Please model this.
Amino acid sequence: MRNNTEKHVAYVALFAALIAALGLVPKLTLGFGVPITAQNLGIMLCGTILGAKRGSQAVLLFLLLVAVGLPLLSGGNGGLGVFFSVSGGFLISWPISALIIGWIVEKCQKGSLALVAGVASVIGGIVVVYIFGIAGMAIVLKKSIWECTTMASIFLPGDIIKAFIAGLLTASIAKARPASVLSRQ
Model:
């Protein structure tokens, strides 16, 4: 039992580090202050590979490190202030996103893992993230939900590609190392 717990703790730490590493990919900040980053791909992979519980734990660990001031977000940002910025709603959504993605992959055991993981990433990694992110943008920017939805729509093509990549990566990892995809155990 102890080895299994240690293994799961290691996976949580590893995926928190993966999210941080994806922050090293150069960001593109849009005119209204929200950056396009690779880090939400890491959030999707937390759910598809680790499952609901461990995936959300990895994201919470990452956000805790950001909250204490480590510059782990894309562009080297960190600290409590980022949670009250125009990106705050997106950040707050991440653990919920990983939880929902993981839950879907855990419950849908039949069919193509690539398809299940991709669809789960769209539902949890796009729909859920956008609900929180757009609400946060509306509050911070003092704009309507519709205006913020229009602004956020610029992210959609890239996020769909990331969901597709998350599905393919998850299926590839499951094929190469089935025991590594904890969401399917």
The first helix runs from residue 2 to 22. The two ends are 15 Å apart (CA to CA). The helical segments are 2-22, 39-50, 52-67, 88-107, 113-141, 145-152, 156-176. The longest strand covers residues 28-29.
